[in-house]
Amino acid sequence: MFPKALKRSDIASHINEMYPQLLLVIFFSGTMRGFSAPYFNLYLDAQDFSGTLIGIVLSIAALVELVGIPMLSNLADRTNRHRTMYRGIVLAYISAIFLMLAFPITAVLFAGMIVAQVCFRSTFIFVIQLAFTKLEQVGKSNFGRVRSISASGFVVGNLISGLIFSIAQFTGLFLAAIASGLAVIGLSNALPINTSDKPTDDINNTQATSRRQLYPVFVAQFFAMMGLRTGFAFWLLHFQENLGIATEQITLIVVVSSLMEIPWYNILDGPLRKHSAVWFYIAGALGFGVIWVLIGSATSLLWVMAIMVLRGPMFAMVNLSMLVHVNKVSHPRNVSTNQALIQITIPSLAALLASAPLGYVYDNAEPIIFFSICAALMVMGGGILLVSQLVSRKRKRFA
């Protein structure tokens, strides 16, 4: 924590010196996930796990995630030790990976996979929120740059993974993830101790909203994430099964889609400084509804690649705007809990409820019907927040 007498001008130079190290922490956090997370299911399959058993592991992990991550975030908020909690989660993540690699027996794989899945998203939430706090310490608001660095790390991890896998299989991938995790822990002094580690002139003037005022955001996020997460669960399968796109080309689609997000995180920094992040979320949700309809109508790889270009700004708006909005309206002492609820708990609950029925639709209906339902859910989420904003604006006008 900063002493009470310490003002922004006194700490600006120190924080600016730490800025490159901060970006490295975020980047290696991304590579850690990029080297490991996309390959967990493939590793379990290579260890003779059946599809049913993998599904059971993922279901248990989702349930643990629903309860565990908000509890960890709340504990970090209560103890005011967010950096320590982040280090612990990273350590748990790479330890789980190491144990799965060193002792590939069913019990260890089962437990390790659950721990890794639960830690995967929480590492992202904690490092992003701590990075946002660091920026706010000196009045910076280039949140998009921070998010783009995280995305870049994940993309780099994915790009290099093919080469590593061809040389050292899963052992090489997981060791690379562990090395990235150790680098994160070693560089993590660049992160603030907690999310309220700000100069006192900021804390005294914090305009934080109550959680009740976030309820419309929670509801909107729930419907939007039903459409987003379920669509993402089946879109690559759709490309392969219904469009006949080869696995190698699927990898290209994933890389291109991720690359298209990165510049938009940086582009959105300027507009997000001038306008409410909520409007960008609404635009992104409505726009992604269009993306799902286009994907359901696609007939070729070329069409899909063109859609990926359009997907970039829409996904960036949905993702970055919500991170920025929750960071802005939450009190520093409960921002991690709010971020966990918005970014992890609600999407996980939405996916848990929607995956089975929409999976049935995917199996038994035309692709355009499935993706139109996903689109409708996205539009519903954006529409709920749009109505909420218009009503709120009208009330203020007549107050």
Major sheet details = none
Tell me how many strands there are: 0
What is the distance, rounded to the nearest whole angstrom, between the alpha carbons of the first and last residues? 39 Å
Percentage of residues in DSSP E strands: under 5%
CATH topology of the largest domain: Growth Hormone, Chain: A
Helix content: over 70%
Query: What general outline do the C-alpha atoms trace?
Result: globular
Uncertain parts: 1-6, 199-208
Order of helices and strands: HHHHHHHHHHHHHH
In the CATH hierarchy, what is the architecture of the largest domain at level 2? Up-down Bundle
CATH superfamily of the largest domain: MFS general substrate transporter like domains
Number of helices: 14
How many domain units? 2
**CATH level-1 class of the largest domain:** Mainly Alpha
Radius of gyration: 21 Å
Which helices and strands occur, and which strands form pairs?
Elements: H1 8-36, H2 40-46, H3 51-79, H4 82-102, H5 106-137, H6 143-187, H7 200-203, H8 215-241, H9 247-267, H10 269-274, H11 277-297, H12 301-329, H13 335-364, H14 367-398
Key terms for this structure?
399 residues; Growth Hormone, Chain: A; 83% helix; globular
Can you put this structure into words, describing what you see?
- With 399 residues, this protein is mostly helical.
- It is built from 14 helices and no strands.
- The chain starts with 7 loop residues before the first helix and ends with a helix.
Short description:
The protein is mainly α. The chain folds into two domains: 8-202, Up-down Bundle (Growth Hormone, Chain: A); 206-398, MFS general substrate transporter like domains (Growth Hormone, Chain: A, Up-down Bundle).
